Amino acid sequence: MKKKETPLMKQYNAIKAKYPDALLLFRVGDFYETFGEDAVKTAKILDIILTKRGAGSETETELAGFPHHSLNTYLPKLVKAGCRVAICDQLEDPKQTKTIVKRGVTELVTPGVALNDDILSSKSNNFLAAVYFGRNYLGVSFLDVSTGEFLVSQGNEEYIDKLLQNFNPSEVLVSKPKRNEFIKTFGNQFHSFYMEDWVFQDDYANETLLKHFNTKSLKGFGIDDLYEGIVASGAVLHYLGETQHHQLQHITSIQRITKNEHVWMDRFTIKNLELYHSTNQNAVTLIDVIDKTNSPMGGRLLKRWLALPLVDIEKIKKRHDVVDFLLKEKILLNKIQNHIKHIGDIERLISKVATAKICPREVVQLKNALEAIVPIQSLISKCENDALNSIGNSMELCEDLRLRIKSSLNEEAPVNILKGNTISSDYSSELKELRELAFSGKDYLDKMLERESERTGITSLKIASNNVFGYYIEVRHTHKDKVPSDWIRKQTLVNAERYITEELKEYETKILGAEERILEIEQRLFAELVDWMTQFIAPVQKNASLIAQLDCLCGFAQLASENHYTRPEVGDSFELNIKNGRHPVIEKQLPLGEPYIANDVYLDRDTQQIIMITGPNMSGKSAILRQTALIVLLAQMGSFVPAEAATIGLTDKIFTRVGASDNISMGESTFMVEMNETASILNNISERSLVLLDEIGRGTSTYDGISIAWAISEYLHEHPSKAKTLFATHYHELNEMTETFRRIKNFNVSVKELKDNVLFLRKLIEGGSEHSFGIHVAKMAGMPQQVIHRANKILKQLEKSHSSEELTDKVKTLNNEMQLSFFNLDDPLLEQIKEEIVNIDIDTLTPVEALMKLNEIKRMLLKKKRA
Fold first, then answer.
1. pTM for this prediction
2. 626-647 pLDDT tens trace
3. Angle of helix 36-46 relative to helix 71-80, nearest 10 degrees?
C-alpha cells in the first residue's frame, strides 16, 4: 500500500526525484531537513539524532535535520564522507504566500565541486576529474572550480593512472557503461560518479568547450589534437552545469599536460618514494619536508612541480639561478617572504568573484592582498636576476580595483552583508543621508521634546517607544489637562497616559524605512561592485600564478639555507655523480645530535651502469636507493639538493621497485605485484632512465629469486638503453655477475662485527658483502633467546652442508659453462645455443630483444673462443 503524502512531502519527493544520487538538504523554516534513507545516512555521518515524522501514521518517515545557520559546520562533513549534497532552499518569503512555499535546489556540492572554504584544503587543489575510454587512448581532464585551473591530457592506462595518482582528484566522472572497466583499471579508491554515455561524445564535448571559451577552435590552447582529452574536458564542464554552477568566468583557459616535458614516474614510484602520502600513519613525506611556501597558491604549485619535474635543462637552470641569487640576498628573501605572508589565497578569492559567492570581508582581503603585491613588484623588478625581473615586470598592480574597493567598502566590512555597515558613507550620498536619519534620531527626538514641552508647558514630558505602538509621548495624570487637542491618546496607565502625534508617526516611518533602504542600497552597491570586479579576473589570476612561482623559489632558498643543500649541476651528460648525498626526509627524523651518514653514488653508461648493493637488512640499502631518486627529483624540480655536490645527467624516467607492497585486496600476491611492477620497468626504460630495484625476487623461493634477479640484471646490462641502475639485494650470489658483466659493480653497506653483535655503519663501500646478519637483526628486535639459539644452530648446520656452497657453485657454473670445447660435436655450448634459438618465439620478439638475444649468443661464443 502506497504511503499517503502530505503537501510538503509531495514537494520533497518531486525535487528528490530530480537528484536521486544526491543527499537532499530540504529547507523547512529555520532548519535543513533530510528524509527517509537520506536521513539515516545523514544522522550516521553527522552523529545527530534520527527521529520520525508522523510516527505511527500512514505518512511516517525518518527525519534528521540541523539549524540552517550550521550549514557550514555540517556540509563539509557530508562532502568529505563522499556525498553529493543538493541544497534545496525556500525561493520565496513564507509570509508572502498562503500556499506551500516554493522551493528549489540552489547548489549541488560534491567532493569535486566545492567553493566552501571549510571543505577545501588551502595548500591542495580540489580537482574534479573525468576519464574517457577512447578507441586509441584514454582521455583525462582535471578542473579545480575553486581556482579555475583546467588541465587535460591523454595516453595509455599506465599514464592516466600516474596522473590520477599525481593529481589525486576528489571526484572522478566516468561513463556508466565503463564502470567495471574503470574499477578494474584504477581500483576503487576514488569517489566516482557515473554519467550517461551521451555526455562522453566528441562533438558534444567540442561544442561545450567552444561555447564556454567563446572561440571558433581549440588550437589557441594547443589541445586540438587531444581527441580523447577533449571528450573528458567536455564531460567536466557539463557536470558543472548539472551541479548548478553556471558562473564560470574564472575558467579562462585549458592547459595541456605534455608527457615529454616532465620526468616520467609511474604510480609505483610515486607511492614508493612517499612524495605526498605514506602507507604508514603519521609518517613524514617529502612534501612535508620541502614545503616552505607562505601562500596557499605556492603550496599548490609546489605539489604540481613535484608531480611534474622538468626535463628542460634551461628551465631547470633558471630556477637554480633564482634560488642561488636569493640565497646570496638573504635580506631581499626575508622581505619578499614577509610580504607573501599577507597575500592569502587571491586565486580562490577571485574565483569567488566569478561565482558571485564572495562576501564583503573577502573583497577587503583581496584589496589588502593586491596592496601587498605592490612592494614585492618594486623589490624584484629591479634586481639582478632575469627570471625574478621577468616575474616582477609581469605583475599587474590592479590600481583601479584597489582604489574602488578602498573607496566603496569600510575596512571593517562584515562577513555577512545583512549585518550592515559594508559600504562607506562617503561612497554614496543617499546612504549618508539615510544613515544620518537612522542614527541621529536621539538629537531629533530631544529637539522635538524640547519644542513640545515649551508649547504645552509640561516639563515632565517623555518620548519613548515599544513594539506595540512604536514611538509615543508620555504625560503624567497631573498634567493631562494641558494636552493639546491634536495629540491622539493611545494608552492609559495607572500614573500616566500615552499619546502619539502626526510628527512622531512620520518620523517613525522614516526611521524604519531608512533601515530597510540602507540594507537595500548596500546590497545593490555591493552586487554592482562584485559584477564590476569580474573584469579583473584574468590579471588577478596572473598575479596568483606569479606569486605562486616566486613563493616556491623563495621556499627552495629557505630550504637550502636551513638544511645545507647545494646547487646541483644538471647537464646533458649521462653520468650521475652524488658526493655525500643524504635522504631529505630521514635526516630530519634523526634524534638530536645524531649525524646522518652521507654516501657517494656514481653511475654512468660506460663503466659503472649497475651497482649491486648487498648488505644486511636494516643497514640502510633502501635509504640509499630512495635518496638517490629524491636528489634527482629535487634537482629537476629546480631545488638545491641534500649533498656536498651533485652532477646530474638529465633523467627522463625514474623507476622504483621498493619493498613488498601487497595488493591482496585486488586478489594479487606480493610476488605477482612485484613481477607486474618490474615488468613495467623493463618494458619502458630509456637511455636517460634511473632504475632503483630493492630486493627483487624475494617473494618466491631462493633458487627462483636468484634466477629472476640474475636475469633482470643481465637484461638491464645488455639492453641498448644501458639504463643507470641501483640494485639492492641480499642474494650475495649476484656478486658473481661482475666477473662476466663489465658494467656491473659490487658495493655493500658496511657493518662492524663485534663479539656477539653487529654495528650498522650505513656507509656504502666498494666490494660485495658475505653475510646477511639476519639473526643479529632478529636479536635486536627482541626475539626470544630460545629462537635465536635455535636459528644459530640451524645456520651452522646449513653452512656445513652443501646448501650455500652449492648455490654459489651453481652460479659460478653459469659463467664456466661457456668455456668447454667448441669443436666437440656433442659440445654442451652448441646444445645450449641450439636450445636458445629453438625456444625463441619469433612472433612476440621485439627488435630490441632480438638484438639482445644475438648479443647474448655472441658473448657465449667469444667467451668460448677466449678460453
1. 0.81
2. 999 999 999 999 999 999 999 9
3. 100
